[in-house]
Write a structure and sequence with these properties.
alpha+beta; five-stranded antiparallel beta sheet; 24 strands; rod-shaped
């Protein structure tokens, strides 16, 4: 944009030229007059013109210099205007960059700035902005992951407390689990189905707890094994997730009415490939992946606790029943022993006390199973109890039958040896004996076979006496089976009251890498670490004083490695209510404990990382301040360069054309516009070929190399060439090409001087 006083500047140039011309003419007049010795007046000037006709040309010098001054001042003013505009654009770009840096310093990482192709500083700051933005995104992501991880750790701690506090009541335990699970994961409704498998012929699920909308629901629902989604989840032993729930399968009821949930998850409570129950959760919205993983971990812990609680309840029940049965059997054994002693005494004195023997026999017939057999094994006599217990109606059904009729085929091999010995007058038999009833049932007895001898000492017959122990034997076998199952599913060991190992099952030995003989040389105090010695001594003192222990405990295996257990120590009393032994029942939770320890380590590491991030943020702010200061210094340096360039270009009249390595015009000054008779708007961004017609390029190798991007330029040499203007005029010029290389970018600048002479 031209300044308002541009006409005044042009006129000032013309006046300055005119004045200079007048002074030159006066000087020439004075010199000529002095030289020819003319009078120094107007007449002398006339005489000078008469003698020197070319003086008339001298008279036009003021006019010529006035015109020349006008055009010189015009070009100078226009060049100054162009430079001012360029300077203004540069300052605008710098201010824009400065505002961008200020926004970054204030924390606005979404600030926008588009640098020019040659603006390396702007590109660097934009790259820094992108790095900061990406760093914040990653930091946010890490914070979210840390939040989810801490959420899961706190949740596992919460449910760990719930499982420890309610492990003596399954119904309350299941309710507290689903109540807190619904609240913690943000679900709307949940149900807990517990497997009831005490009767193998009737295995089913019982809904032990139901919770919805912060209220406890009371429901007594039975689901047969394998039925519905709950049964399918248990059979497949895999989690089931439904995002399209059949209409009417489940309704969530609130004060606003009923609605069908949109998300349903069923998780099996599985331990050692055995399902102990199923948790069913319903929600209006799908749960996030980290919440589903958390539910799986909670299900594992719940399954372990339920299995342990069931085992503890069953073990306590078995121990109680076993103690009662042992006392009952001991009492019956004592009674049997007394009866046998009385029977033997009776047999020895039978010949002398026949009347007493008959009386005793009648008493025995009322209390014991009795039968008389011949030496060949045929039944001679059976009392009423014999007939009742072996399910016969009368003596006619059994008399004359061989004894093998009452013995199972599997037992005849060992029984035949006993009978052969008895038939030959051998030692009597006393012990457990299993008989076969008429209907094929087993009758367990504590039996005695005794030879009844003749006066000559021979065997007259064989007397059979027994007490029915079928019920006690079946219970004993059942207890043995349950204890065997306990040994297969849990770690079990028995210790003396002083802590010495008495016996241990295979799982205990495998877990601690001992054989039984080596393990028996250890006490409970040898199996723990030295650091835990005082703790186990305190626990052991409580146990042997009748206070059972339940909780987490660690022991060292034979290789010195630590193994963690969730265990119970229970004292077992003998029939005199004194401590007989201490039983340990446990489950290996080493993996779970190591994960918990690792989680704690990761939490500590995350805290350290957060501290490092805080330090990095401080360092980043410091670098931003340094970058801001550097930008300010560069602004000052650019201002100095601009002032220096402004002074350099004050009197520059040559045409200047700058191109990049592809021959695209980047700079085109005012002198070039006047020389080529074309405006810079039409040239900037176009190929330099448009300034040099084809015929010129073909005839001049210097020009041809300059306009061809693929040819090497002839630099550093000033050449005289001819150019053709827009109007078609041919103008001779001097042309100099220079090359500048910054990084990978190469630019060429042509300095073109017009050497044509205008004749007036």
């Amino acid at each position: 944009m031209r300044p308002k006083n541009y006409l005044f500047n042009y006129t000032k140039g013309a006046l300055f030229g005119l004045l200079l011309g007048v002074l030159i003419v006066i000087a020439i007049y004075v010199a000529g007059i002095i030289n020819f010795d003319f009078a120094l007046n107007f007449g002398g000037v006339k005489d000078l013109h008469r003698n020197l006709p070319f003086i008339y040309l001298i008279d036009f010098i003021p006019l010529a210099l006035g015109v020349l001054g006008f055009f010189v001042y015009k070009k100078y003013s226009e060049k100054l205007i162009d430079y001012s505009e360029t300077l203004e654009k540069s300052l605008h770009k710098e201010r824009k960059l400065y505002r961008f840096v200020e926004k970054l310093r204030e924390g606005d990482v979404d600030a926008e700035y588009t640098p020019d192709e040659n603006d390396s500083l702007g590109k660097a700051i934009v790259s820094l902005r992108n790095d900061i933005k990406q760093s914040r995104i990653e930091e946010q992501k890490r914070k979210e992951e840390d939040k989810q991880r801490n959420w899961a750790v706190e949740g596992m701690a919460l449910f760990g407390d719930i499982l420890r506090q309610n492990n003596d009541n399954l119904e309350e335990l299941t309710f507290q689990v689903i109540k807190n699970l619904v609240s913690y994961v943000g679900a709307n409704q949940a149900a807990f189905y517990l497997v009831e498998d005490d009767d193998e012929s009737d295995v089913h699920f019982r809904m032990t707890a139901c919770y919805a909308y912060e209220r406890r629901k009371y429901a007594d629902k039975i689901i047969p094994w394998g039925d519905g989604l709950v049964g399918a989840c248990a059979l497949e032993k895999e989690k089931i997730i439904l995002k399209k729930i059949p209409q009417g399968y489940l309704n969530i009821t609130s004060g606003l009415g009923k609605a069908n949930p949109k998300y349903l998850v069923l998780v099996p409570l599985k331990m050692n490939d055995k399902v102990h129950g199923v948790i069913e959760l319903a929600s209006f919205d799908p749960l996030e992946d980290y919440k589903e993983e958390f539910i799986d971990k909670v299900a594992e812990s719940v399954a372990t606790t339920i299995a342990t609680v069931k085992i503890n309840i069953r073990t306590a029940k078995l121990l109680k029943e076993s103690r009662e049965q042992a006392e009952e059997l001991a009492l019956k054994e004592e009674q049997m022993r007394q009866n046998m002693e009385e029977l033997q005494a009776t047999q020895e004195e039978a010949s002398r006390q026949s009347a007493k023997f008959i009386s005793f026999s009648n008493s025995v017939n009322h209390t014991m199973i009795r039968a008389d057999f011949g030496v060949d094994g045929t039944l001679l006599y059976a009392n009423t109890k014999f007939l009742q217990k072996l399910e016969y109606a009368s003596n006619s059904d059994v008399e004359g039958k061989h004894i093998s009729m009452f013995i199972n085929k599997k037992d005849r091999e060992w029984f035949d040896d006993i009978w052969n010995n008895l038939s030959k007058g051998g030692k009597h038999f006393e012990g457990d004996m299993k008989l076969l009833t008429r209907n094929g049932n087993d009758l367990w007895t504590i039996a005695t076979f005794t030879c009844v001898r003749t006066e000559s000492g021979g065997v007259d017959k064989i007397l059979f006496l027994a007490i029915d122990t079928t019920e006690q034997k079946q219970l004993s076998l059942d207890y043995e089976g349950q204890i065997s199952a306990l040994n297969r599913s849990s770690i079990k060991a028995e210790f003396s009251p002083t802590g010495d190992l008495i016996d241990a099952n295979e799982k205990f030995l495998l877990t601690l890498s001992y054989n039984l003989n080596a393990a028996k040389e250890k006490s409970i105090f040898d199996l723990v670490d030295e650091a835990d010695r005082k703790n186990i001594e305190r626990i052991w003192d409580d146990v042997i004083h009748g206070i059972p222990y339940e909780g987490q405990f660690r022991m060292n295996n034979s290789n010195g490695e630590v193994r963690w257990f969730r265990c119970t120590f229970t004292a077992v009393n003998d029939m005199y209510d004194e401590i007989a032994k201490v039983i340990l029942i446990a489950n290996d939770i080493t993996r779970e404990k190591l994960m918990e320890i690792e989680t704690q380590k990761q939490t500590e590491q995350l805290k350290r990382q957060e501290e490092q991030l805080r330090r990095n943020e401080i360092e980043l702010n410091k670098k931003l301040r340094e970058a801001k200061e550097e930008v300010r210094n560069q602004f000052k340096e650019i201002e100095k360069v601009k002032i220096r360039n402004e002074k350099t270009l004050e009197g520059f009249l040559d045409a200047i054309v700058t191109t990049d390595h592809d021959g695209i015009v980047q700079f085109f000054n005012k002198a070039a516009e006047e020389l080529f008779e074309i405006s810079r708007e039409k040239v900037i961004g176009q190929s330099v070929r448009m300034l040099f017609p084809e015929e010129v390029a073909k005839s001049d190798p210097y020009i041809a190399a300059y306009i061809d991007p693929n040819k090497e330029k002839i630099t550093g040499q000033r050449k005289e060439v001819t150019i053709i203007t827009k109007s078609g005029n041919e103008i001779p010029v001097l042309m100099l090409i220079t090359e500048a290389k910054v990084g990978r970018e190469i630019t060429h600048t042509a300095f073109i001087q017009n050497i044509s002479v205008d004749l007036f």
